[in-house]
Structures are given as structure tokens and as C-alpha cells.
Amino acid sequence: MPLSEFIGDKAKNPIYWIYYLEEIAKFKKLLPQKDIPILFGAIVSKAQVLITLDKKHFLGNEKLRKMKFPCEIMNPGDFLGKYFRLGKK
Asked: What pLDDT, in 10s, does the model give residues 45-86?
């Protein structure tokens, strides 16, 4: 499914895209080019959690963590522990 279909009518408004591109441009100094689409997808989809194993660029990136990011970044184990409390009674 194309991204324009996923986000609906907002995709037709160029101001919408300019806003998101400006937001994503802020992250160019913090992330390698290959990781920017991951961040873009999390922002556009309004994800509550970004689950990753990327310790170098996401989990261990203190500058990224200090920014007001619209979702929590965590590894799979922390996610399961926080939201499902597996193994605990």
C-alpha cells in the first residue's frame, strides 16, 4: 500500500508533507540515512512504541532520546516486560 493511501487525504496537502519533511530533517544529524525511513514510519503512523534491536542508532543514542520524540523507543524484551509482564504473577 502506498504511503499516500495509508495516511489518507492529508497526503494531498503539500503543507502536510513539508511539515513532516522538516521534522525528519532534524534527525539527519542523529541517524544514518538508512534509519530515517524507520523514524519517518513511526512518526507518520503515530506509533506509541518503536521496537528495535538497533543499540547503536536508536537505543543507545542519547541525543535522540533527549529530543521530544512522539513514541517510546525500546527493545523487544523491555516492551514485553513493560506491557505484558511475562513470567510475573
From this structure: 889 999 999 999 999 998 888 887 778 999 999 999 998 876
| 11-25 per-position pLDDT tens digit | 566 656 666 677 677
- Cβ-contact 17, 11 below 8 angstroms: yes
What predicted TM-score, i.e. pTM, was given to this entire model?
0.68
- With respect to residue 71, please indicate whether it lies within any of the assigned structural domains: yes
Counting the structural domains of the chain, the total is 1
Q: Which three cell numbers stand for residue 58?
A: 536508536
Alpha-carbon dihedral 41, 47, 51, 54, rounded to 10 degrees: 40
Query: Which domain does 15 fall in, by range?
Result: 3-83
End-to-end CA distance of the chain: 41
Residues in CB range of 81: below 8 A, 6 or more apart: none
Q: Phi and psi of 74, rounded to 5°?
A: -150, 165
The residue to which cell 530533517 is assigned: 25
